[in-house]
Design brief:
mainly alpha; three-stranded antiparallel beta sheet; 3 strands
Length: about 130
Amino acid sequence: MNGVFEALGEPVRRLILELLAAGEQPVGQLAAALQSRMPISQPAVSQHLKVLLEANLVSVRAAGTRRLYALDQAGVDAAKAWLARLADPLSPFEQPLDALATEVARGRRARRAAATGQTAKQPSGEQDSRPA
């Protein structure tokens, strides 16, 4: 997460990410798209791409003499996961709590069955350990 939100703090970088959401693009094409919206030089676009690359929000690959930039899905997913933890801080406990709820329900069924003199039903896959 180092630098992700610092990188996203700049409106030009957010716009670059929006442009890259459409697919892989060379720096020249990105610069032209940005220049149609604001005054910015190609070296400035390259500097913004460097910051996004260091924050793991974009990836780059060489294709001949061109460098093609694309969204780095792993970096975007990491940022989304971090934000999701803020929105739902209890989500890491969801599965253990579900397991606890299952065990509580199983105990209640067993107590009810014992109180009525019946045998508690075994969930599928479990075998009765009592002797026949």
